[in-house]
Amino acid sequence: MSYNRLQTMRDNIAAIRLVLSLGVAGRTAQTAEEIAVLRKYAGFGGLKCILNDANELADAAKWSKSDIELFAPTVELRRLIHDYSHDDKEFNRYMESLKASTLTAFYTDSRIVDALSDALKYQGIEVKKFLEPSAGLGVFVDSFLRNYPGSEMLSFEKDLLTGKILQALHPSTTVNIEGFERIDPDFNGYFDVAASNVPFGDFAVADPAYAVSKEIGYRQASKSLHNYFFLKGLDQVREGGLIAFITSQGVMNAASPFVRMELVKQADLVAALRLPNNTFSENAGTDVGSDLIILQKHTGKKALSADEDFFIQSVVDRGTKVPSNKFFQAFPQNVICTDAKVGTDQYGKPAIVYHHNGGVDGIAQDLRKALDESLHLRLNLELYNSKGIKPPTPDPVTPTPAPKQEAKEETPKVEKKSSLTNTPLMQQYQEMKKKHPDAILLFRVGDFYEIFGKDAVTASEILGITLTRRANGRENYIELAGFPHHALDTYLPKLVRAGKRVAICEQLEDPKLKKTPKQKVVETVTPNQPPKEEPKPEPKPAPAPAEPPRAEPAKEIETDGSPDYTDNPDPRLFTYNLFGELEPIGKPRRQPKQAEDAPKPKPSVEVKGIPVKKFRPLNEKELEFYGSLNWEDNPPINGFYETMMSIAHRQLEEMRLEREAEEAAKQAASKGETINENDTVIERTEGDFIPGRQPRVAAQKPEPVAVDMSPRPFSEDIQFFHHNGSMVVQDGLVGFLSEVRKNGATFNPLELKPEQAKRAMLYVTLSETYQQLYNYEAETHEPSEHLREHLNQYYDEFVSKYGNLNEKQNVRFILMDANGRDALALERGENERFVKADIFDHPVSFAVDELTSVDTPMEALSASLNKFGVVNLDYMTGLVDMSEENLIQSLEGHIYYNPLVENYEIKDRFIAGNVVQKAENVKAWIDREEERIKGFPGYDGIEPYIAMAQDSLKALEEATPRKITFDELDFNFGERWIPTGIYSAYMSNLYGTDITIAYSSSMDEYSCDARRKNMKIWEEFCVRGYYRTYDGISLLKHALHNTVPDIKKSIGKDDDGRDIKVPDSEAIQLANTKIDEIRNGFADWLEAQSPEFKEKLSDLYNRKFNCFVRPQYDGSHQTFPDLNMKMLGDRYGIHSVYQSQKDCVWMLLQNGGGICDHQVGTGKTLIMCMAAHEMKRLGLAHKPMIIGMKANVAEIAMTYQSAYPNARILYADEKSFKADNRVAFFNKMKNNDYDCIIMSHDQFGKIPQSPEVQQEILQAELDSVEENLEVVRQQGHDVSRAMLKGLIKRKENLTAKIATIQYQMEQNRDNVVDFKQMGVDHIFVDESQNYKNLMFNTRHTRVAGLGNADGSQRSLNLLYAIRTIQERTGKDLGATFLSGTTISNSLTELYLLFKYLRPNELERQEIRSFDAWAAIFAKKTTDFEFSVTNNLIQKERFRYFIKVPELAAFYNEITDYRTAEDVGVDRPEKHEILHNIPPTPQQEEFIQKLMRFAESGDATILGRAPLSETEEKAKMLIATDYARKMALDLRLVDPAYGDDPNNKASHCAKMIAEYYRRYDAQKGTQFVFSDLGTYKPGEWNVYSEIKRKLIEDYGIPAHEIRFIQECKTERSRKAFIEAMNSGDVRVLFGSTTMLGTGVNAQRRAVAVHELECPWRPSDLEQREGRAIRAGNEIAKLYADNKVDVIIYAVEKSLDSYKFNLLHCKATFIAQLKSGAMGARTIDEGSMDEKNGMNFSEYMAILSGNTDLLEKAKLEKRIAALESERKSFNKGIGDSRFRLQTISHDIANNEAAISRMKEDAARYQSVVQRDKDGNPVNSLKLDDCKYKDEQNMGVYLQGLAQRTDTHGQYKRIGEVYGFPICIISERVLADSKETVQNRFVVEGNYKYKFNNGFIAMSDTHAACMNFVNALEKIPGIVAQYEERTAKMKADVPILEGIVAKVWGKESELKQLKSDLAALDRKITAQLAPKKEEQDGEENKQQPDTQRVEVRDNQSQTNSPKESMVAEPPNLYTREPLSSRIVIGGCGATPPGGFRAAGPKL
What we know:
By secondary structure, the chain is an alpha/beta fold. The protein is built from 71 helices and 62 strands.
């Protein structure tokens, strides 16, 4: 039976109606009919229509043709749910739940589920406790209840309505209507079986325990719904229990193996079956691939089977790109299908589509067979039935110690059969047991310590671990117990305390990996020594080898026929390698036969107490790097990093345990508490705690007093510092807390010696006092001297008795406490001794220093601002000892009286901000006060204040910005600050009807409405797509939001008969044209308004945006009292502070932060240090922090120390942030009062941020996403499934993040100090451009160049920290950004800067999102062009920025921008040289290949594999990348290419050698930059190639040429820099990242070589800044104070084109920052690193002909215009047809009106009326003999019931001469066909009353039916006349539309003419003679004064003109800004290259 959407919808509605009514009645389904109705519910997985608008009948016009039949049921569904909802909130919850379910709800057919449950039943599985985590209607519950009646059932269902139906159907089971993630933790390990069809999707799940897990698989599972259900389900079943889940193919096909690895680590694979795509077709109407996976929980497994190894591995077919799983390649019979073909999945990706011709019945039948086979083969029924616990052997006997000889006597005789009954493992064990018969032997096997025989029985009783049996050969069994190796520290003390001697044996090799024949001789293998034969068979222990045996390739392992010790049924063994991949452990290669006298090898065994490592240990560098990372604040970037981090942390923990064990062993040995017997270390226990020997006669010792050491409730109140593991004191006992909750905890006493207990009690008192002191002062900001006195007292007592806290004997003991690291931070190291932390002396969580005096009035002013936030004259006079009058006089010009606050304000605050509003308010105050005292005779006292206020007003008016007139403004349609009434007026004028527009600021959403729509809306501004119609109102909303609808069309049907939907390019372009008409017409409409209107609008703009003043900060008065200029001069040559530095510091002090935008080399580092120190000195900041790049941070710290030698600086070196030291460092920050804390960006990212702040910010983002989601849902018909899923996915991910943070807050994991607790109150961010990737929300998801809206964790961490500070101060800023490239690439980065630093100001301007900001300051361009496949594609980007001066003013208000020229830095001038290089023959050939690749997309042309689907979308980016590599060196493309003497490397080497010789005497140095082909040891690279040429061809010594990548440490980096400055290194290669920042090696620099062009202007500036900076002595003295910057450009490549674009962007950015924009609009260009170039420009540039580029642009523009004309003509044609239709309708209506009027006149002429004017009935019936009304009425009623005219009109009588007829119609009623009769009166038309039906209960009414019909004629005529009048009103509009002429015809004609002329020119140029002449005519002479162009072609008269090496006059104008055209990207010389951009 096929899926019927309409019937499914009806069934769903019926089920919902019933379940809601049952809920009202308070009962469940009871009758069979009710149950049947509910069971028909099938969910809405195939019914996307419920997303559409269905609130009123008018919404039906928006529905697609395929969905329109579902409109009425959808309306009914909404109304039904609304009627049963208590309020709108509940209704919205129901609807949201239903809509979300459309993505995941697909219910399973009961026949499939029955096949599963029956198969389990058949195999003997008994289920008592069953879990259904995603129940739907409970199909799995029904099936399992049928087979297992009486079982305990627990179901989860997240959808609200489905959950209610589930409850109604299954009243006897437990149903939870919530997500599976909410299951109670008590259910872990509870259920026998969990089975379900789990939901699928890449949604994050709000389960924080998984999200923060250190296991990779769990963290990945928390990000995808289907994977999560598997791991969570596995957690819920008991040992041996089963999970059987139907899921998407994504679980087994996913590329990442970690989830599957985690599954098979914890469970055995029982079955994996691939189901056909039509499994759900009948039930859910969807074809989707799915798998059935059954797993059996088995946490004690030790190895994986081959099947499980296959299960882990996913594969991708190279040809078809189809993903699959290796398991199905190995077991094709596990794919249930009858046929298969390559197709696509539901997301359009390649997939194998499986089909079963037998339908669901056939699928179920084959599924049963496959399940029976898999379950029979792999199900471990014994494990299931035993629940993982095997019964112990009968009569267990506790062994007693016995002499060795007795042990030998008791050895069984059967040992002779060891070759049959003993595995090699047991042989080793038995030999070791002979050595220690009286000890419990712990035998290491893999990751476990195993215990055998009687030892196992004894240990299981003492330790409470599971006792099992295992086969030992063919006939015997032996008892077995064991525990993981890492639990040794837990279990060993228990055995010792029980009086048992313990021997620990480490297995060094797997005995099965070597052939072990009869072994009579034991070898002891020692590293670096030959084997030595021993006379006795006992093994002599040997030291552990450095590495474990290396795994061999997988081969068949020889065995002796006995079972494998791993209990693995598969003969192949697998293990995880270092990368988390499974590798087979094979049989070792056969060794060469040894000499007869040579001893035969036997596995060596060592018995000792230290575990050995399973894998190759990481080396020290690997440990240092990966161990320093963690999951919380520095997450891994990929799976490899995650694996390495896991290994590193595990190894560090093992190393720590080793150290502790060694120390314990040494201490025990010193006290004689161990026995070393043949190197076997055996511990003895005496008493309860100290290991030693158990006394033989226990009765000889008096029994100790019994002390209750059992756990008990903690009797004290739980404090904020109590955590799991906290050491506390209760009832005179020391112990630990566990199970800590808000209202209680469990106290676990410790057994301690008396002296140990005393030390512990004193420590606990000290620790708790510290916690109380810090918390009290942090919360109240008041010192507690009482607590501080106690803290000092307890600390002094502890130190006097037991030594410093950090002494070795105390550290281990203190770290046992969860708060131990906090306590250790109470000391710090100084001069090799421990001293008290600052908290012992004064509070460290807030500032307490109180200034009593200052030296100058300005310092008094700063102190006043800090303490009070205002100018407090009383306080200031006390500080500086001056009178108030003198103080005011001294501060004249610095403070102004503000009458609005009745106090003085500092100039930089008073004359700042919105000065327009401030001046108006001050003037109003003056006028009001003057009016008040106007008639006052005496002295009022206000006069001096009025005078001061007038002075203040004058200062404000002088500072007011020049008013921007209306003519200067550029308006965007949709700017949020413009009142919506203006938009309404404009649109009402445009549409010719009233339009209402409203704006919701919370959702950043416009809504539009028209009460009366007209032809303008329905026709002129309407686009009709294949599926939907977008009328003028819909397009208006898009115009306001600056978006374009995504219109689809169908290009046919797929194999399943569904539409194949593709974008309708023609309709999209037409919609874009109409939207542009709306948007562009707004400015014209504004222009036509009255002068008063314009004035009012411009005033509104000026008040909002042009009202800001940036104060002129003058810091010349600052003296910087602590600054040590002598040391700065000695170390850095800095002898004075620039005025620019003083001004910037003063700005930062006054504002509390800002942006220091100073060019490279202008002293930002010193600004940062001085500002931080001054903030601290003046009390403006309590604990400032500086963060810088890793390469620079050491230099920053050195500069700070040099500037302020006496300052207390906390500098975070590399060791500080190692895993072991990080917490201690955080506590240092928290507990000490440093002048400044300095660390790197990476280290800052590891600081835990305040969970509360994180939650607040993420909640705001979530609210924004939910608002966008609501907007999208309100749009209904405009929403695509992908858009909805994307928003829901982001919402779920944010929800999961918030839940994770909440979980961490509750758990307080690791109790690490977070940023908020550290007390940092100002952050200086050096090189802040590295934090530009901040998250933001936008609707413009298709716009290029916006970056990643999700942002990076690094940037988010900085936002958290800054918000923490801003929240504390209640003000903007709180941080200082320092960078010479604050805007690195695009002006859109400005918004993110404002989001960091000015959130409150953005809110004031009503800018709450990026879209609101872009609506004011940016213009989006939509470019339509043809792709290589001739498809019209749409490209959008924010290319133009408007209102630039106001944008610049907003930026400059908090910014100090200075260039090197502004500062007056004595630095060299840049001398730019463009070095042209002709392409080599091989490059020419490759260029042709690139052009063919760009045309066809065939990657095999380039010698690489075909493009994948993902690569296809990025084809032009790939092509651009290849072109870059080709230009640099072809060997980057393919190493097979050889060297060429004319390639770029050879040219560069020659130039380097020239400069080397020229400045040899001065040891001039050079920088060489390239981000491609960087140095990699052992690989060919451009760096090494140029170095080779310099050495071999030019004789330059190798040691003078170095690569920055060789520096692996900060020390080596400093050495390189020093070597460059001294001239020992003459040439330094590097990339922008590694060499572009933090390298002050400019002293001898004479040249910078740019081998290739970076993507961003900031990168170019950073590169050049290495040499062009202050301190370049050689350039100043010997190179005319110039540094040559050589740009290498290969012709016909992208080199020069990219350099030109970067120069353009750099100029725009510089002009914006300086506020020197000549225009109010700028154009950014159209190329970026994420998209590459467009096809047309790419082809033209590679061709080397600039005319071809112009031709490509012309052709693109012509094609777009022709397409637009076609769309326009189509629209006109539609309107013409509409006009014809309306004209025809008007004519028909007029004719009908005329004929109806004739009937009306005829009737009026004969009608008779009574005295009241009512018509008299003159009815005559032909066949009725009665004439009275009563009988005629009965007669008519009889006709109506019994007549059948078979569809023909039949006369029955007349009235007033008008014939009366009856007609019969056949209709269906209650599924039966019946006859229905209607009556009409005939005139020119047939007239009816009551739709032709006569009254069946009233004979009078029945007879009057016909007169009433005639009486209605005038009303019908009026309706026709009204309708005709409306149509006539539309005719002029339609005629106007039809008469419209396409306005771009002349432009198109001109473009075609230009193209024809260009074609002629290109044709002429192709002729050789013409080409030569053109080359002569166009030859230019370069101007070498500032910029040179070097043409390096072999022939000077070459006819070719380089595309990339641009014509010389492109670079001859000075300065750079003068050769940039605003709005374009470069100048256009005659015949030369012109970059992309409009002509101005």
